[in-house]
Amino acid sequence: MILAVTAFAVVCTAAQFWRTDLDPVAVPLSAYLTGPGGLYVRAVYDLIAIALLGFAWGSYRVTTAPLRSGLASALFAGAGLALPVVATTELFAGGPHENLARLTHGLAAQATFLWLSFGMLLLANRWRRDPHMARGHLPGLALAWLATAVLWLQVFAPGLPHGLMQKLTIALIVLWLGWASRHMMRATHSR
Q1: How far apart are CA 32 and CA 35, in angstroms?
Q2: pLDDT tens readout for residues 5-42
Q3: Local confidence band at 188 (pLDDT 50, 70, 90 cut-offs)
């Protein structure tokens, strides 16, 4: 996951600079999935999707048995399965199935955001009570709540720049995933 998070952050940040035709404040990240460099952005979407599937399993296994959450793992796995759909549906823009692709893209993207935010909150709260995971849990809990707050702020304050708010949500989720992966590694080594 740490490798996937790093690659995702580097490629998606670089895309903000190489795509001078797009306004990074107004345009969501999905606009970078096509056009110049779109292949790289789609590749890191797929990489992080695979990593999410591994994270779903790993986070379940590292949590103490009575505190394990099948729901949290299912939410992360669901996001891992939905993310490639988000990336692929952008390729149908301008084609005969554009409307269906746009609908599918929107549903998959919203599902991914919701599943990740709820999974983060659920897992961070479980880890708070876990004797092996509790040490150093506060940054993860704070990041999970902050990412969820920014996600919902987009719903309740639609006048905010959509691209910027979406990218801020993604950045917070990616930071949380990096933190959680490191936290899991630390807890595993301390056992």
Answers
A1: 7
A2: 999 999 999 999 999 999 999 999 999 999 999 999 99
A3: confident
List phi, psi (to 5°) of 74. Answer: -65, -35
HEC string of the chain equals CHHHHHHHHHHHHHHHHHCCCCCCCCCCHHHHHCCCCHHHHHHHHHHHHHHHHHHHHHHHHHCCHHHCCHHHHHHHHHHHHHHHHHHHHHHHCCCCCHHHHHHHHHHHHHHHHHHHHHHHHHHHHHHHHCCCCCCCCHHHHHHHHHHHHHHHHHHHCCCCCHHHHHHHHHHHHHHHHHHHHHHHHHHHHHC
Find, among 48, 37, 38, 41, the residue nearest to 5 by Cα. Answer: 48
Q: Whose structure tokens read 């995933």?
A: 177
User: Torsion angle, CA of 56/60/62/68, rounded to 10 degrees?
Assistant: 150
Number of CB atoms found within 10 A of residue 5's CB:
24
Q: pLDDT, tens digit, for every residue of 93-132?
A: 888 999 999 999 999 999 999 999 999 999 999 999 999 8
- Cα 109 from Cα 106, distance rounded (Å): 5
CB atoms within 10 A of CB 67: 16
